[in-house]
Design goal:
The chain is an alpha+beta fold. The chain has five helices and 15 strands. The N terminus is likely disordered.
Length: 332
């Protein structure tokens, strides 16, 4: 019998999201706090069929995919340790990373410096409201504790502090503890999800299945949101600002500004567009729960619960004054 229970669940004291395991089982015990201070403890883990059907972020760090069942084929399941990383695409973005995790791959030394790696969309800023200060971390697709892979640009993306610590880390810890305790192997795959030519991923899909016990020990398939509560993100560039502020120009000093490189032309153009359109009246769709507003044609609108959906005709400036923030996908 395993000594720990590898399961994440909800309690009334704080938000704990449960892994709803069906065909795969789970021995258990690692609990992971997955909510911000405004999280609703009554939120239940959502499950959708595919990543394309993932709803808009609604307070929980992740949703389950395919009833939480990973999609490794029989041919892919192996106990032979390996790790594979995709080549960067034409925009310099990471792709799928896959490994068979075993003790053979795990590091026996301390993690080194990775500050020289600048993943796409790396427009970092410091906020008092972010745990740890800076909104972005250099997020390993496959965590260092699992393979020892560190300053590898094919394994590092721009991820929010929230996604890194509240979304991904509890599952990485779960896998590491299981492998160290059982000496079994775990198939592990992480796929960053980019919308169009965005430089910052909207989230990551994480899949894992323990091999020797047929998924009894570890089994999950989730999508983790790359969001930061109370911070708005322009996923096309990585620019970000406190959500109560009208635009990122008043949100503080970015790394590029501090180093004297200044903002890019695309950043300036985006700011000009927002400024010029902020006083024009048009129709938006609001999510009164997440306090986000969307273009009516935005694909996220279909995922808003009817009780939270409202149509608004007026200015963008008025919505921001009322505490709403623009959708990161349609960027209204």
């Amino acid at each position: 019998m395993f000594k720990k229970e590898y399961r994440v669940r909800i309690t009334a004291a704080a938000l704990y999201l449960s892994l709803t395991l069906t065909a795969c089982g789970a021995y258990g015990g690692a609990q992971a706090n997955s909510g911000g201070e405004d999280a609703d403890s009554s939120v239940q883990a959502v499950s959708v069929d595919t990543v394309a059907e993932v709803p808009e972020y609604d307070g929980a760090p992740y949703v389950e995919i395919n009833d939480n069942q990973p999609e490794f084929t029989e041919e892919e399941l192996t106990t032979e340790p390996y790790e594979e990383y995709s080549d960067l695409d034409a925009l310099g973005r990471c792709g799928e990373a896959e490994a068979c995790i075993g003790e053979e791959l795990m590091p026996d030394e301390e993690r080194g410096d990775i500050s020289d790696v600048k993943p796409t969309g790396w427009e970092n800023k410091e906020y008092d409201i972010v745990d740890g200060g800076y909104i972005y971390n250099r997020c390993h697709l496959i965590g260092f504790q699992l393979t020892g892979e560190n300053a590898n640009e094919e394994n590092l993306i721009t991820g929010t502090r929230y996604m890194n610590t509240e979304g991904m880390l509890p599952f990485e810890n779960m896998v590491a503890e299981y492998v160290q305790e059982t000496e079994n192997h775990v198939m592990y795959r992480v796929t960053p999800v980019f919308d169009g030519d965005n430089l910052v991923a909207s989230g990551v899909q994480m899949e894992a299945e323990s091999v020797e016990d047929g998924g009894e020990g570890i089994c999950f398939n989730i999508y983790v949101y790359n969001v930061q509560p109370e911070i708005a993100i322009d996923y096309t560039t990585g620019a970000n600002w406190a959500s109560e502020e009208e635009n990122q120009d008043s949100a503080g000093t970015s790394d590029s500004e501090a180093s004297g490189t200044g903002s890019t032309d695309s950043d300036s153009a985006s700011a000009d567009i927002r400024e010029n359109s902020s006083s024009k009246e048009k129709t938006y769709i609001l999510n009164n729960n997440t306090k986000k507003f969307h273009d009516p044609e935005c694909s996220s609108v279909d995922n808003i619960k009817e009780k939270n959906k409202r149509e608004f005709t007026g200015t963008r400036e008025k919505l921001i004054e009322d505490g709403y923030e623009p959708c990161g996908k349609c960027r209204p």
